[in-house]
DNA sequence: TTCAAATCTCACAATTTCTTCACAGAAATT
DNA sequence: AATTTCTGTGAAGAAATTGTGAGATTTGAA
């Protein structure tokens, strides 16, 4: 759950299998795509932490894929040059890739590049991406939420509201404070909106909904 | 030492005395001025961390005073509206006040505003909010109360009533004073309401309920 | 644009808290 | 002892706050 996801984009099944075996052995999660369109779809859907892209692929080649990805996402990208292929380093990096690697490569090489790129991508917050409190854990980057290993799907407001409550677990938060922290300092709406989101949060959390306590006359508290 | 200084500007002595008792009980340092000119002089001299200003004052009213202060200082300011007066929120805040409070107000309200404004002005002070007296301890921020490590659930009025008694432990508090401090200074209800809350407080406290002594003909006292 | 999801608001129901009152009982006063 | 004054307390209902469903509005993606 906490581990980082890597998307492999390569049209050769053997290559994907090989790389996946490297990555899973190191504890990374792996998602695979055999072409550019699948890759774009999977990036949307799974928000990988890193994308490995083979330059030479049918239909949409690596360069084109990077261009597409960069229109919407800022995910780190490493290029893999095809076997024996001439590598145009400058072209790849200019297009927005973060690093490149020429086949054949060995696992140590690959891991070293991956770690470097990932570290560069999240410089000062290796763990602040994750918030944990009681049965909850949130991945702020992926916007994914778990209640005791069960994933729940939250909207933006619900997610942020839960995040604030978790960051201040066991502390009462007034509706005003919550409004300030989630909606912004000078939001003009009614504070009762908080109640509505608390309602749906409790519903989505399910059984354990009672962990969000109402503190009468004050606000809400996440008690864990 | 490190405690924060608050300047009270109000022409009514009673009001200043009342507010001072709130503030000193909370550990703030207090400076008082009865008019705008004195206030300006004291701000120069003592550099308070916060200024409480009554809107209605002879000679220089609150609005004029804020204008003067803002010419040289950026100290946080909270307006107090005069008794029964119509509050022009927009005018006050536009002029540079950071918050406002309408009389009658109670100590908890005042403290909440003060803390919010001070925190906003100086965002690095995790000041603890615990009050202790005898077997009791209260966390005002979390609205949680303990009797000898056992948590008891108090309503707002009960909590504030106990807080006031604790802040003045071993001193007799008349019903009128308690009313003033918990309900606000010119609350219109009957003082016997205090009795009812004392009753439920004693019940919730349990065995040790007798620490709230009745002082016949005068009021109540927390004896610890 | 057009649609669907997300968000916000509102009204009313449900719940909790607060206040008042009346009367019983205790303490002081005569 | 009788009387007066004050306090304890249970209960009713007033008031305040929260829960919630439904519909309006906004946002975001295709």
Description:
The structure is a homodimer of 224-residue chains. The model of chain A is unreliable at 123-128 (pLDDT under 50). Chain A has eight helices and twelve strands. Chain A has helices at residues 13-25, 36-46, 62-72, 89-94, 107-121, 156-167, 175-183, 192-205; strands at 5-9, 29-33, 50-54, 77-81, 99-102, 130-133, 136-139, 144-147, 150-152, 172-174, 212-215, 219-222. The first copy, chain A, starts with a strand and ends with a strand. Chain A is of the alpha/beta class. The interface between A and B is small, with 8 and 5 residues. The first copy, chain A, binds a DNA duplex (30 and 30 nucleotides) through helix 6 and helix 8.
User: Oligomeric status of the shown chains?
Assistant: homodimer
Order of helices and strands of chain A: EHEHEHEHEHEEEEHEHHEE
Number of strand segments of chain A: 12
Mean pLDDT of chain A: 79
Sheet-strand content of chain A, in percent, reads: 15-25%
Helix-strand blueprint:
The structure is a homodimer of 224-residue chains.
Chain A: E1 5-9, H1 13-25, E2 29-33, H2 36-46, E3 50-54, H3 62-72, E4 77-81, H4 89-94, E5 99-102, H5 107-121, E6 130-133, E7 136-139, E8 144-147, E9 150-152, H6 156-167, E10 172-174, H7 175-183, H8 192-205, E11 212-215, E12 219-222
Parallel strand pairs in A: 1-2, 1-3, 3-4, 4-5
Antiparallel strand pairs in A: 6-7, 7-8, 8-9, 10-12, 11-12
Helix pairs in contact in A: 2-3, 6-7, 6-8
Chain A binds a DNA duplex (30 and 30 nucleotides) through residues 155-158, 189-190, 192-193, 195-199, 214, 216-217.
């Amino acid at each position: 759950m906490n581990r980082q996801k890597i998307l492999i984009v390569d049209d050769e099944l053997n290559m994907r299998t090989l790389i996946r075996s490297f990555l899973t052995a190191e504890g990374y999660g792996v998602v695979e795509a055999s072409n550019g369109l699948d890759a774009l779809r999977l990036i949307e859907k799974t928000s990988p932490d890193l994308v490995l892209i083979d330059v030479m692929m049918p239909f949409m080649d690596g360069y084109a894929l990077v261009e597409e990805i960069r229109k919407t996402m800022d995910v780190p990208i490493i290029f893999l040059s095809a076997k024996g292929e001439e590598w145009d380093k400058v072209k790849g990096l200019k297009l927005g890739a973060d690093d490149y690697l020429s086949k054949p490569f060995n696992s140590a090489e690959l891991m070293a590049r991956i770690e470097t790129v990932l570290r560069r991508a999240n410089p000062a917050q290796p763990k602040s991406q994750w918030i944990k409190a009681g049965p909850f854990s949130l991945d702020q980057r992926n916007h994914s939420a778990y209640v005791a290993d069960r994933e729940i799907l939250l909207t933006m407001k619900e997610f942020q509201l839960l995040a604030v409550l978790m960051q201040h677990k066991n502390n009462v938060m007034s509706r005003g404070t919550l409004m300030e922290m989630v909606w912004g300092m000078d939001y003009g709406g009614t504070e009762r909106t908080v109640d509505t989101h608390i309602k749906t949060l409790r519903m989505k959390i399910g059984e354990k909904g009672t962990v969000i306590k109402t503190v009468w006359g004050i606000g809400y508290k996440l008690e864990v």
